[in-house]
Amino acid sequence: MKETLNYSFKRTLPILFGFFPLGIAYGILMQSIGYNALWTGASSTIVLAGSLQFLMTSFFGGGVSISAIILLSLLLNSRHMFYGLSFIQKFNSFGPASKWFLIYSLTDESYSLHCSYKQKEGINEKAAFILTSAFVVIYWVFFSVIGAYAGSLITFDTTGIDFSLTALFATILVDQMRTEKNITPVVIAVISSMVSILVFGTDSFILPSLLITIAALLVFRKLLEPTAEIQEVQE
After folding, report:
1. CA-CA-CA-CA dihedral for 44, 46, 47, 49, to nearest 10
2. Residue 153 pLDDT class (50, 70, 90 cuts)
3. DSSP letters of 108-165?
4. What is the pLDDT of residues 12-41, one digit of tens each?
5. Does position 181 have pLDDT exceeding 70, yes or no?
6. 62 DSSP 8-state letter
7. Distance between CA atoms of 36 and 42, rounded to whole angstroms?
8. The model scores a pTM over 0.85
9. What whole-number distance in Å separates Cα of residue 198 and Cα of residue 132?
10. Rounded to the nearest 10 degrees, what angle do helices 37-46 and 13-32 cross at?
11. How far is residue 12 from each of residues 41, 78, 109, 138, 152, measured CA to CA in Å?
12. 31-45, 119-133, 135-149, 164-178 — which is least confidently predicted?
């Protein structure tokens, strides 16, 4: 168990460093609009969606209808439906309690780590998935609360600090591309994203891009599967 704990912690270190400025920034923002560390911690624990939580701060100011909030939240986090579908069988195999925790804690970061997980000798797969998710949740809640506490003490300009989330995703993507021989899915995703941005704009491209990517992967599935089988034989 100790080996699995160390393994899971090391895998989440990039998330730890990425969440440090991002969580602090969210805590500062919450504190600046009048919500203390308790509310910040509750938001990070219950909502557990970084981009949506940043958007929520504008909702708190009023003037946004409940229906608009529901629609915006659905559009912004619709990608999680696809995340869950890709791991539904894996999570079911871990048992009810573990399954519900893994569903609750399935964020962009934990999803990326789950996708890149490779079985190693001496590592308990179920425990590794749970610990990885738990570390991600703990990092986010901890740093957002610290940010709320320390918000009034930080005087430097924090404009642009939320870009660390984008940088974190880019780092994870590059790391996965370095370990995978077939980057066709990445190429498909990049092209679909660019097309969706041109057609739907930067505020509404995520869902169309995901749908296009999934459709393309299904179409080219037979071409991709032999490559994956060859790679498994070589390993």
Report:
1. 50
2. confident
3. HHHHHHHHT----TT--HHHHHHHHHHHHHHHHHHHHHHHHHHGGG--S--TTGGGHH
4. 999 999 889 888 888 888 887 788 899 999
5. yes
6. S
7. 10
8. no
9. 36
10. 130
11. 20, 24, 9, 11, 29
12. 164-178
- Average of pLDDT values for 119-125? 87
- What does each C-alpha distance from 219 to 121, 185, 190, 214, 215 come to in angstroms? 35, 12, 17, 9, 6
DSSP per-residue codes, 208-219: HHHHHHHHHHHH
**Does the structure show a pLDDT above 70 at 230?**
no
Q: What is the dihedral of CA 10, 11, 14, 15, to 10 degrees?
A: -110
- CB-based contact 87:107 (threshold 8 Å): no
Joined together, the tokens standing for residue 232 give 């498994």
Integer distance in angstroms from the first to the last C-alpha of the chain?
26
Reduce the DSSP state of residue 188 to 3 states and report it: helix
Separation of alpha carbons 82 and 92, rounded Å: 16
Task: Report how far residue 157's alpha carbon sits from residue 155's, in angstroms, rounded to the nearest whole number.
Answer: 7
Q: Please, are residues 92 and 99 in contact by the beta-carbon 8 Å criterion? A: yes
Q: Cα separation of 161 and 152, whole Å?
A: 17
